[in-house]
Design goal:
There is one protein chain. The chain is an alpha+beta fold and 489 residues long. Helices cover 41% and strands 11% of the residues. The protein is built from 19 helices and 15 strands. The strands form five sheets. The protein has a five-stranded mixed β-sheet. Helix 5 packs across helix 6. The two termini are 38 Å apart.
């Protein structure tokens, strides 16, 4: 996150990909699908040379789909509730797209494109980065094949950051093959397996908005604009030390022609003298809340904010003064509230999750982030790993995490999904932190609910419990009671 589920469990009723069971995960996917771990997470730009290639890939507000948030059109300043919804979408779906000339919501930095449209990304308070988790020895969410992901990002940075006197973002587009050749030169291997891993890493980086893939070219993604300026000198040194790829000039379509075709169109007036993008700094979001505290308490509040938002597991209350002290905890709760978040307590441990009201508003204002097949696969894992073991007395009633993995063979047997679609759904759910993969030899292992289930509020846990009852036993008396209670509301 272990013995595999026994074969006797297959006799229980199971949802199929096209059945009503897809609602088991879909109804609360906004509450569950907290994308701070999704699709490869984010590089923690630590202000050292390790930020791009050797630094930890940590848990920030990653994305299920790059630049996939709701579009904010041209209108006046957003109300506090609308700002909170925007932050929820930025966390769950990636950078929020902005219309031409539209200001970023509070607490976000605006990245302006040559055509005057833009994207908005949340910024961290007081200029800190998730590397603060390392200082407090708190584990961030792990990233699949993090080594390849870091090295491929370093290769993309070398190829796309052509003018190192300027900031890394937006940089210039580079051919995908040039990035792959740079990666091969970096690791000293040229076999097909390494190429497949590199392509997988590029996709993870694209999904989390660290790079943008399209039409055979790679560009630096909007998250690269969040690297602190003080880290650029180390990044330049890192790029200088990366080896040059041995790449013969192409005779059919030259690299220069590929790059020229991928460059943006003529910039709009005011888009910048160089025609590229520009970063517009965000105003201080929490200044009014932090101004009344001395430097020590301010640092404690910021540290607690970062760990509850980006740590892999709930953190112990005793380790952070802002969690122990009720007055500081109220201020921390207000900081989270402005981003549509709330504190969640697990005995003496704390984490954060989506506020129920804000999540409901965000869910109503945007499209479903998980496909039907992804919701069905998630529901099936919950049935096998949680519902059935709980019914057999193997799990505490209030637990949504489980040591009982659902084997892939069980998933194949009880869905109507083609193998490729099933594997794609599992990959998306795994990258989003909704599922975890347990590897225990050739014959055992499987999938269990992921770390995002720590972040369910009590109301979201109840909703998910009811949906799971309806999915696993729609004709049972318990399901009838759930439906009757809902109809009476």
């Amino acid at each position: 996150m272990a013995p595999a589920n026994g074969p006797h469990r297959s006799s229980h009723p199971e949802p199929v990909a096209t059945g009503a069971a897809t609602s088991a995960a879909g109804g609360t996917s906004t509450a569950v699908g907290d994308a701070n771990t999704s699709a490869g997470g984010a590089v923690t730009a630590e202000g050292r040379a390790t930020a791009a290639a050797g630094g930890a890939i940590g848990a920030t507000d990653g994305a299920i789909a790059a630049a996939g948030g709701a579009i904010i059109g041209a209108r006046g300043p957003l109300a506090a509730a609308e700002v909170a919804v925007a932050h929820v979408w930025a966390r769950a779906a990636g950078p929020v797209r902005l219309g031409a000339g539209v200001a970023a919501p509070g607490g976000m930095v605006r990245l302006t494109r040559p055509d005057s449209t833009g994207e908005a990304l949340p910024v961290w308070p007081d200029g800190v980065t998730p590397s603060l988790l390392e200082e407090h020895q708190v584990a961030p969410v792990t990233v699949e094949r993090s080594g390849e992901t870091r090295r491929v990002l370093a290769a993309a940075l070398k190829c796309c950051w052509s003018d190192q006197q300027a900031d890394p973002w937006p940089g210039d587009p580079a051919p995908v093959e040039l990035v792959l050749d740079t990666y091969r030169a970096l690791i000293g291997r040229t076999d097909d397996l390494m190429r497949n891993w590199a392509i997988g890493a590029l996709r993870r980086l694209h999904d989390s908005a660290w790079v943008v893939l399209g039409d055979g070219v790679v560009s630096l993604g909007p998250r690269c604009a969040l690297w602190p300026e003080e880290s650029h000198a180390q990044l330049r040194e890192l790029v200088r030390r990366l080896p040059e790829p041995q790449r013969p000039e192409l005779t059919v379509v030259r690299d220069a022609d590929i790059v020229a075709a991928a460059r943006p169109a003529e910039p709009a007036p005011g888009a910048g003298a160089d025609g590229g993008g520009r970063v517009e700094a965000a105003a201080g979001e929490f200044d009014d809340l932090l101004a009344g505290h001395d430097e020590r308490r301010r640092a404690e509040l910021v540290a607690a904010f970062m760990v509850v938002e980006h740590a892999a597991e709930p953190v112990q209350e005793v380790r952070f003064a802002a969690l122990r002290d009720p007055a500081l905890r109220r201020t921390l709760a207000e900081m989270l509230s402005r981003r549509g978040r709330t504190l969640i307590q697990h005995r003496d441990r704390w984490t954060s999750g989506y506020d129920d009201d804000v999540a409901r508003a965000a869910y109503a204002s945007g499209e479903e982030r998980l496909s039907v097949s992804e919701r069905a696969v998630l529901a099936l894992v919950l049935v096998h790993s949680v519902a059935i073991p709980r019914a057999e007395g193997l799990l505490p009633e209030d637990s949504w995490l489980s040591p009982h993995p659902t084997p892939v063979e069980e998933l194949r047997r009880h869905t109507q999904l083609p193998i490729g679609e099933l594997e794609a759904a599992l990959r998306t759910l795994r990258h989003a932190g909704l599922l975890g993969q347990v590897k225990a030899g050739e014959e055992a292992g499987g999938y269990v609910p992921g770390p995002q289930f720590h972040r369910l509020t009590p109301a979201a846990r109840r909703r998910l419990q009811e949906e799971l009852i309806l999915a696993a036993g729609p004709n049972t008396p318990l399901a009838a009671a759930v439906l009757a209670r809902r109809s009476a509301r």
